[in-house]
Write the structure tokens for this entry.
Amino acid sequence: MSSKVKKKILKLKESSTLVINEKSKELISKGKKIYQFGFGQSPFPVPEKIVEALKENAHRKEYLPIQGLTELRENISKYLFKRTGNDYPKENILITPGSKEAMLLIHIAFNGEIIIPAPGWVSYEPQAEIGSNKVHWLETSRANNWFPTGKELEKKIKSIGKKKNLILILNSPNNPSGVTCNNLEELAKVAKKNRIMVLSDEIYTDLTFSNEYNSISKFYPELTFITGGLSKWCGAGGWRLGFLAVPKKLREFLRSLKSLASESYSTVNTPTQYASVEAYAYEHENYKLKVRAILKAVGNYVYNNLKSNKILIAPPQGAFYLMPEFKNKKYKTSSKLCEAILYDTGVAMLPGSDFGFSPKKMLTRLSYTDFNGTEFFRNVTNCSMIDDEMIKKFAPNVVEGVNKLSNWAKNL
């Protein structure tokens, strides 16, 4: 039967983030205590006003325009202008069923090659393969906060060939490392000089712990796409509402994306689009401040209790991830390392090899969201007073899992 499936599709495997989530649930159903540090999902409740807006519009059943509700696109345009200073007009905004779909549409439409800094999200490369676009990994180092330098990007572009159509994918704060890019202007200059396009994945940017929204589009708006959505800052991953902002110079590209959308998902579900008007009409700043404060406090707790001579780790700067590196000679691949950790401790993580690193690098991705976000959120009255005792009370699985992982690493 495999002969009936295209070879490039046969090569694909299920997204590792979804696989680890299902595997964890299976082990839990069998009675094993699992610390779910493998799946990156916001634990927090969706803001009440946005939930109310969804309820009020649940009766709506009409098809909306392919590109999305006009008022929603207007609000997203204003949201981006306030954060980046760039005008992505409503005509250049496409509403998609999650930002993941927005990126997939780009890969399908684009005719060229893709540069992905490692570490990079697990779906970037498979999506490029679906679109028949060759991937060039650009391995980074801890020395530059797990992002490429301008020189490294320039060198990679030259090795590929300047005449080729190229897209650089950037994601800050980064999944899986949880750190932010400190040299966006430098990278923008190289991209601009070489006339390459940039896909700026800004799904986590509202969860930057410095409370600053930094986008490469501030320095290179001409050829920078921006993707975003509700899944991370708003806790509404299952609502599947994302957007793609297309630079004015690429309106022809947008036309092709709209055609693809029309022949695939037609339009994003109507009640969620109306609810999202509310999501992007206001800042929801108190909500975001509390979410960032909790994530920063929990992230720092994990960092402070894991860092050792056996575990190298950078402090969290955004999103809800850390990328521990284990000093070990026992396991030959990061995948085998993660399997051993899951079997020995119940801690589920993802191997660095899923994010573009060599399998021999003992890097893992740890998501520190295994707690009841609704309960934690409701019990925070002062964002500056989230201490270890609160974390122990409201994030016991994180505390227990980190303790087991730390003790396990001592025997490496």
Notes: The first strand starts at residue 35 and ends at 36. The radius of gyration is 21 Å. Residues 122 and 355 are 5 Å apart (CA to CA).
